[in-house]
Amino acid sequence: MALKTIKISEENYRWLLQLAGELQKNYGRSISVDKAISELKEKKKNNKNLLDLAGAWEDMSDKEWSSIRNNLDKIWRKWKNLSA
User: How far is it, in rounded angstroms, from Cα 13 to Cα 19?
Assistant: First the structure.
């Protein structure tokens, strides 16, 4: 692994150290600033934006929507019965 030097502000450096400290508490082991950045990168990658779905069902027919709605209603009824 190649190591690189980057310049960051004191504020960002302290923030990264704080994040690494929080991760250390969660993991119960030492966490480097590099690992903290990797965690942020992974979180960003897995964090989907709801707006990414905008227009995804734009060309759905009324029949398709009705079928989806009916299936969702069935699932909700089953879930409500199980949790009651």
Answer: 10
Q: Residue 35 in contact with residue 20, Cβ under 8 Å?
A: yes
Distance, CA of 36 to CA of 22 (rounded, Å):
9
The residues, any chain, with a CB within 8 Å of residue 36's CB and separated by 6 or more, are: 16, 19, 20, 23
Distance between CA atoms of 26 and 35, rounded to whole angstroms? 13
Question: Which tops the pLDDT comparison, 66 or 58?
Answer: 66
Question: What's the distance, CA 13 to chain centroid?
Answer: 23
Q: What is the pLDDT of residues 14-59, one digit of tens each?
A: 999 999 999 999 999 998 989 999 998 988 888 777 787 788 778 8
Give the chain's length: 84
How many Cβ atoms are within 10 Å of 23's Cβ, its own excluded? 17
Q: Residue 38's CB: how many other CB atoms inside 10 A?
A: 12
